[in-house]
Design goal:
Layout: H1 2-22, E1 38-39, E2 43-44, E3 47-48, E4 54-59, E5 62-75, E6 78-89, E7 92-104, E8 110-121, E9 124-127, E10 132-133, E11 140-145, E12 154-156, E13 158-159, E14 166-179, E15 182-194, E16 201-207, E17 211-215, E18 218-224
């Protein structure tokens, strides 16, 4: 009987794995990764974690700057890379976020372990809405970018009950996106939604070797690859 249950469980896992790899599965929320294989350094085709790498975006008078810092932080037993997002509105700082990522050395998949958030109003610190960390208050890490991308893949990025339950679907691959920073081919288009925020729907495009080149109205204007 025990052997039969093991075989059934293995069969279910195999079917789920095939569905994920083929891009035909349901929303993926469990990531059976070996934490010993997760690292703060590594390479994913569509997500750069090299310290000093910086991306600049603009939308009118609003800006967004993403910087891979030369810092790490241990979260949920994993050493993660710190990535800073700095958003301004009409010249004033609106939000400063420190995101935490780790990459699987075996699959090149990038996992999201949480974020510390500072929101500002009229130049003054106003709160920390949206902050969460894997392993704290029932939150667990999600996937930020698969190592092998296929259209139709769906996965949870943030799994913090009552705080952030964001998920992403790979809508298309092989697209071309033109921004002030250049024309980028073979881009991946993702649609991000939330299981707890009705109406949320963000569109993002990622280019090989660069990362995100467009998010809704924000477009990439400059890339600094660091040293």
């Amino acid at each position: 009987m025990e052997k039969g249950r093991i075989l059934v469980a293995a069969s279910i896992a195999a079917v789920a794995a095939f569905a994920w790899q083929s891009g035909k599965g349901d929303w993926r929320s469990n990531f059976a990764v070996d934490k010993q294989a997760l690292s703060a350094t590594g390479t994913n085709q569509h997500f750069v974690l090299t310290p000093g790498f910086r991306l600049y975006y603009e939308h009118g008078k609003n800006t967004l700057t993403t910087t891979v810092l030369n810092e790490t932080k241990v979260i949920d037993g994993v050493e993660t890379r710190v990535v800073e997002d700095r958003e301004t509105k009409n010249g004033q700082l609106a939000e400063l976020t420190r995101d935490y990522y780790a990459i699987d050395r075996n699959t090149n998949g990038v996992y999201y372990f949480g974020e510390d958030v500072d929101t500002y109003k009229n130049g003054k610190l106003a709160g920390h809405e949206g902050a969460w960390l894997s392993g704290v208050k029932g939150a667990k890490f999600g996937m930020m970018m698969p190592g092998a991308i296929k259209a139709g893949q769906k996965f949870y990025q943030e799994q913090a009950p009552g705080v952030a339950v964001d998920r992403a679907e790979v809508v298309a691959i092989g697209e071309t996106v033109t921004t002030p920073a250049g024309a980028f081919k073979n881009c991946v288009q993702m649609k991000e939604t939330s299981a707890i925020e009705k109406g949320m729907a963000d569109r993002k495009w990622y280019a090989p070797g660069v990362g995100m080149v467009k998010e809704n109205e924000f477009v990439l204007v400059r890339v600094e690859k660091g040293k």
